[in-house]
Write a structure and sequence with these properties.
Elements lengths: L2 H11 L2 E4 L5 H7 L8 E2 L18 E4 L10 H18 L5 E9 L5 E4 L9 E8 L12 E4 L5 E5 L6 E5 L5 E3 L6 E9 L5
Helix pairs in contact: 1-3
Protein backbone atom coordinates (compact mmCIF):
# COMPACT_ATOMS: atom_id res chain seq x y z
CA UNK A 1 0.00 0.00 0.00
CA UNK A 2 1.39 3.41 -0.97
CA UNK A 3 1.85 6.26 1.50
CA UNK A 4 -1.05 8.07 -0.15
CA UNK A 5 -3.38 5.07 0.09
CA UNK A 6 -2.41 4.50 3.73
CA UNK A 7 -3.10 8.13 4.66
CA UNK A 8 -6.52 8.09 2.99
CA UNK A 9 -7.51 4.81 4.62
CA UNK A 10 -6.31 5.85 8.08
CA UNK A 11 -8.00 9.25 7.97
CA UNK A 12 -11.28 7.73 6.84
CA UNK A 13 -11.24 5.03 9.54
CA UNK A 14 -9.38 6.62 12.48
CA UNK A 15 -9.13 10.34 11.72
CA UNK A 16 -5.31 10.25 11.96
CA UNK A 17 -2.38 8.51 10.31
CA UNK A 18 1.23 7.88 11.30
CA UNK A 19 3.58 6.89 8.46
CA UNK A 20 7.21 5.97 9.17
CA UNK A 21 10.19 6.53 6.86
CA UNK A 22 8.49 9.03 4.55
CA UNK A 23 11.83 10.88 4.39
CA UNK A 24 15.08 8.92 4.15
CA UNK A 25 18.28 9.76 6.04
CA UNK A 26 20.16 11.41 3.10
CA UNK A 27 17.23 13.79 2.55
CA UNK A 28 17.07 14.60 6.29
CA UNK A 29 20.76 15.50 6.16
CA UNK A 30 20.14 17.94 3.29
CA UNK A 31 17.17 19.49 5.12
CA UNK A 32 19.17 19.98 8.33
CA UNK A 33 20.85 23.13 6.96
CA UNK A 34 17.47 24.90 6.85
CA UNK A 35 17.45 24.92 10.66
CA UNK A 36 20.47 27.25 10.78
CA UNK A 37 18.46 30.25 9.52
CA UNK A 38 16.60 32.72 11.73
CA UNK A 39 13.65 31.38 13.73
CA UNK A 40 11.22 33.42 15.82
CA UNK A 41 9.48 32.48 19.08
CA UNK A 42 6.05 30.98 18.37
CA UNK A 43 3.02 32.75 19.80
CA UNK A 44 -0.41 31.74 21.06
CA UNK A 45 -3.62 33.05 19.46
CA UNK A 46 -4.50 34.64 16.13
CA UNK A 47 -2.25 37.19 14.44
CA UNK A 48 -3.74 40.40 15.90
CA UNK A 49 -3.79 39.25 19.51
CA UNK A 50 -1.00 36.65 19.41
CA UNK A 51 1.52 36.66 22.24
CA UNK A 52 4.43 34.60 23.46
CA UNK A 53 3.48 32.45 26.46
CA UNK A 54 6.36 30.13 27.35
CA UNK A 55 4.25 28.33 29.96
CA UNK A 56 2.10 27.13 27.03
CA UNK A 57 4.59 26.65 24.18
CA UNK A 58 8.33 27.02 23.77
CA UNK A 59 8.90 26.27 20.10
CA UNK A 60 10.54 28.51 17.50
CA UNK A 61 9.21 28.81 13.94
CA UNK A 62 10.25 29.86 10.45
CA UNK A 63 7.27 30.32 8.11
CA UNK A 64 7.48 29.07 4.53
CA UNK A 65 5.83 29.96 1.24
CA UNK A 66 4.38 26.64 -0.04
CA UNK A 67 4.31 28.08 -3.58
CA UNK A 68 8.05 28.80 -3.43
CA UNK A 69 9.60 26.35 -0.93
CA UNK A 70 13.31 25.68 -0.43
CA UNK A 71 14.46 23.00 -2.90
CA UNK A 72 15.36 20.74 0.04
CA UNK A 73 11.62 20.47 0.85
CA UNK A 74 10.34 19.88 -2.70
CA UNK A 75 9.52 16.18 -2.17
CA UNK A 76 7.53 16.98 1.01
CA UNK A 77 5.64 19.77 -0.76
CA UNK A 78 4.87 17.47 -3.69
CA UNK A 79 3.54 14.82 -1.30
CA UNK A 80 1.37 17.41 0.47
CA UNK A 81 -0.06 18.48 -2.89
CA UNK A 82 -0.87 14.86 -3.73
CA UNK A 83 -2.48 14.28 -0.33
CA UNK A 84 -4.60 17.43 -0.68
CA UNK A 85 -5.79 16.42 -4.16
CA UNK A 86 -6.59 12.87 -3.01
CA UNK A 87 -8.48 14.05 0.08
CA UNK A 88 -10.59 16.23 -2.19
CA UNK A 89 -11.26 13.59 -4.84
CA UNK A 90 -11.71 10.61 -2.49
CA UNK A 91 -13.11 12.11 0.73
CA UNK A 92 -14.64 15.32 -0.71
CA UNK A 93 -12.95 17.56 1.87
CA UNK A 94 -12.97 20.76 -0.18
CA UNK A 95 -9.39 21.69 0.69
CA UNK A 96 -8.17 24.80 -1.12
CA UNK A 97 -4.79 25.77 0.33
CA UNK A 98 -2.16 24.90 2.92
CA UNK A 99 0.33 26.75 5.12
CA UNK A 100 3.39 25.48 6.94
CA UNK A 101 6.48 26.39 8.91
CA UNK A 102 9.67 24.81 10.08
CA UNK A 103 9.55 24.30 13.81
CA UNK A 104 12.19 23.56 16.41
CA UNK A 105 11.75 22.82 20.08
CA UNK A 106 14.94 23.51 22.06
CA UNK A 107 15.71 21.04 24.84
CA UNK A 108 13.35 21.58 27.77
CA UNK A 109 10.47 23.02 25.73
CA UNK A 110 6.96 21.68 25.09
CA UNK A 111 3.50 22.70 23.84
CA UNK A 112 0.56 22.18 26.18
CA UNK A 113 -2.68 20.61 25.04
CA UNK A 114 -4.53 22.60 22.38
CA UNK A 115 -6.67 22.21 19.27
CA UNK A 116 -5.62 23.45 15.83
CA UNK A 117 -8.80 25.38 15.05
CA UNK A 118 -9.46 28.98 15.99
CA UNK A 119 -12.78 29.85 17.60
CA UNK A 120 -13.71 32.31 14.83
CA UNK A 121 -12.06 30.51 11.90
CA UNK A 122 -12.89 26.88 11.20
CA UNK A 123 -11.02 26.60 7.89
CA UNK A 124 -8.16 24.46 9.27
CA UNK A 125 -9.22 20.92 8.43
CA UNK A 126 -6.06 18.82 8.27
CA UNK A 127 -2.97 19.11 10.48
CA UNK A 128 0.33 17.56 9.40
CA UNK A 129 3.81 17.12 10.88
CA UNK A 130 7.00 15.79 9.26
CA UNK A 131 9.77 15.01 11.76
CA UNK A 132 13.06 16.35 10.38
CA UNK A 133 15.67 15.70 13.08
CA UNK A 134 18.20 13.04 12.13
CA UNK A 135 18.22 11.00 15.35
CA UNK A 136 15.71 10.34 18.14
CA UNK A 137 15.56 7.70 20.88
CA UNK A 138 12.71 6.48 23.08
CA UNK A 139 14.15 8.50 25.98
CA UNK A 140 14.44 11.86 24.16
CA UNK A 141 10.86 12.91 24.98
CA UNK A 142 8.97 15.18 22.58
CA UNK A 143 6.10 12.75 22.10
CA UNK A 144 2.94 13.95 20.37
CA UNK A 145 -0.12 12.99 22.41
CA UNK A 146 -3.47 12.82 20.63
CA UNK A 147 -6.54 13.01 22.89
CA UNK A 148 -10.12 11.92 22.29
CA UNK A 149 -13.22 13.97 23.09
CA UNK A 150 -13.22 12.76 26.71
CA UNK A 151 -9.61 13.90 27.29
CA UNK A 152 -8.12 10.41 27.32
CA UNK A 153 -4.82 9.82 25.52
CA UNK A 154 -5.74 8.08 22.31
CA UNK A 155 -2.25 7.79 20.84
CA UNK A 156 1.30 8.58 21.97
CA UNK A 157 3.55 9.16 18.95
CA UNK A 158 7.33 9.23 19.27
CA UNK A 159 8.79 11.75 16.78
CA UNK A 160 10.80 9.22 14.77
CA UNK A 161 13.09 10.84 12.18
CA UNK A 162 11.54 10.96 8.71
CA UNK A 163 8.04 10.03 9.88
CA UNK A 164 4.80 11.90 9.18
CA UNK A 165 1.66 12.44 11.28
CA UNK A 166 -1.55 13.75 9.73
CA UNK A 167 -4.92 14.19 11.47
CA UNK A 168 -8.28 15.93 11.37
CA UNK A 169 -7.65 19.31 13.01
CA UNK A 170 -10.96 19.72 14.82
CA UNK A 171 -11.15 16.16 16.13
CA UNK A 172 -7.98 15.78 18.19
CA UNK A 173 -6.75 17.98 21.02
CA UNK A 174 -3.01 17.30 21.22
CA UNK A 175 0.19 18.29 22.99
CA UNK A 176 3.95 17.99 22.64
CA UNK A 177 5.66 16.59 25.72
CA UNK A 178 8.91 18.11 26.98
CA UNK A 179 11.81 17.53 24.60
CA UNK A 180 15.15 16.50 26.06
CA UNK A 181 17.03 17.56 22.91
CA UNK A 182 16.19 19.75 19.93
CA UNK A 183 13.13 18.45 18.05
CA UNK A 184 12.73 19.56 14.43
CA UNK A 185 9.72 19.38 12.13
CA UNK A 186 7.75 20.84 9.28
CA UNK A 187 4.28 21.56 10.63
CA UNK A 188 1.20 22.92 8.91
CA UNK A 189 -2.48 22.86 8.06
CA UNK A 190 -4.70 22.34 5.04
CA UNK A 191 -7.56 24.85 4.80
CA UNK A 192 -10.99 24.90 3.23
CA UNK A 193 -10.39 28.52 2.13
CA UNK A 194 -7.75 30.25 0.06
CA UNK A 195 -5.08 31.95 2.16
CA UNK A 196 -3.99 35.45 1.26
Amino acid sequence: MSTLEQVLQDLEIHGFSVIKNVIEAPELLKISGLFNQEFTPAKVGKVDGAQRVEEVRGDLTHWLDPANPPKELSSIMNLLGEIKASLNSQLFMGLKDFECHLSKYPAGTFYKKHIDRFEKDSSRSISFIFYLHEEWTNTDGGELLLYNKTNEVLEMILPKPGSMVIFLSEKFPHEVKKCLKERRSLTGWMHTKLLT
